[in-house]
Amino acid sequence: MKTILSGIQPSGxxxxxxxxxxxxxxxxxxxxANCFFCIVDYHxxxxxxxxxxxxxxxxxxxxxxxxxxxxxxxxxxxxxxxVPEHTExxxxxxxxxxxxxxxxxxxxxxxxxxxxxxxxxxxTYPPLMAADILLYNxxxxxxxxxxxxxxxxxxxxxxxxxxxxxxxxxxxxxMIAKIGSRIMSLDDPTSKMSKSNPNAGSYISMxxxxxxxxxxxxxxxxxxxxxxxxxxxxxxxxxxxxxIYSLMTEQSMEQVExxxxxxxxxxLKGELAEAVIAKLQPIQEKYHYFYHSQELDSLLHEGAAKAxxxxxxxxxxxxxxxxxxx
Length: 326
What we know:
By secondary structure, this protein is mainly alpha-helical. It is built from 14 helices and five strands.
């Protein structure tokens, strides 16, 4: 059976893009593999702006995992900071990393651009991510295109360690969704949907109210050609809306195109708004229940205990290979 590890930063409310590109797949994967879903709060503090409301954001993300359908009986849900093995192995991975390969990380380049003071944690983010993955003997990691480079580094570090100290780590493989892995902005189809966009109308929050959702979708950019067809190169904005509709209604793209044949953009946006609202309302109800319940804290504590059982064994194996510790 596959073992899957995925981590999401608790840096604010998730977008519909996060749900479609990641969490929706997690619900399916928990029935097919050993799944570890980690709230990577130590990664969140690599940028100062993410430290505000951190505790609230951790609870919010945990509640959203449960609301979308993650079952703690089938998958392990926990916060990174509750499993100290992450930072201990993270340091070991840093000592195995080279300056040059960390400097080549595109996310480091993008996030540090234009800044005079660059946090060291932003530079060493990838080795900690490698530790997150390697601790659980992970065989597959669901990643977007923007994270593939980090996973390649994880594989390099694992292979480097294995070569130096003997077979210790499982070498993980990427798992990339073919459809919906990259949902684009509503105001710019060349950019990924992101909550960091200063224009709140560019993304759909998982907690947006129905009227807000409808307003955002109706204002989404399209193009001058009123024909509705899936053509990512020639019609990226419309294709993005069709992708969202396809995934919200669980219809194939062929079915969606046939449904909207001869109709205009007004019909597409109206039905898309209805489909998104229908999908998100029950999730939002469950979210508010879990967020305000003491059950959430208990489930996170239980998840951390389960995670430590696995992570502890891996870390001891690593330390033995290195020749450190008792």
